[in-house]
Amino acid sequence: MYQTSENTFVLSSIKLRDSPLDSGGRSSKPRLYRCVLVGLSTCFIVWTVLEALFIQHRVSTVDRIPPTPPRQFERIFIASTHWNNAVIQLAKTWGPENIFVSIFESGSWDDSKGALRDLDLELDRLGVRRNLTLSEIAHQDEISRPPSEGWIDTPRGRKELRRIHYLARLRNQTLRPLEDLARNGIVFDKVLFLNDVVFTVDDVISLLNTNDGVYAAACSLNFSKPPRYCDTFAVRDSNGDETLMQECPYFRSATSRDALLAMSPAPVKSRWNGIDQP
């Protein structure tokens, strides 16, 4: 009986030694946890504030840097599936003799054809070489055709025309004049794709001057509702992963993310966004 009681007392003593007591006889573990939690929370807040201040500083610095003037004598082939008034200003800035504008209109429902004819007249007045194709085939005509190459089985249980395949074919149409020009000895330093996003001449100049012009391809980020960006389908970070989120810092890769936060060009494996220079 005494032995059982002694064993019980010894076991209780061991438990007491594993649970340190404060001066009031209470366990200090909850207080330790609270201290650790407060410390981590404080570090997180401080880090977030410092990072926000760093990004704000980088943004304000970039805004004060004037865009670099266009590279002299560089010839630009502008391939466009959409039209924007800024094309005229871009032609004036870069020099009509240094650009070629190729536009492919794919059977739009609004008055795009009329607007493009006006653009054609203005480019002609400036002396800009160009190719303008107005197609009567609309997307509705494409999806009404019998399934062929570019059609896929979708989760909705239907066979549908793959949008990327359709758009890629339209973009390739805008590049066809390059072959004819090359046969005549006319070559270009860069190809510039314009999408349907709003852009300025400074945007284009900044893009073309990325990394002092040394790159395989460069593109912008375009935003639906800032800071949320769109066109996530083709973007893969420096590790080849999809983007982590649609808001800053976007990327899963630390290399791509850190470059973005430093307001530097972010390296990626693939991309296709608002304005592209492949």
From TrEMBL:
Transmembrane intervals: 35-55
Keywords on record: Membrane, Transmembrane, Transmembrane helix
Official protein name in the record: Polysaccharide export protein (CAP59)
Lineage: Eukaryota, Fungi, Dikarya, Ascomycota, Pezizomycotina
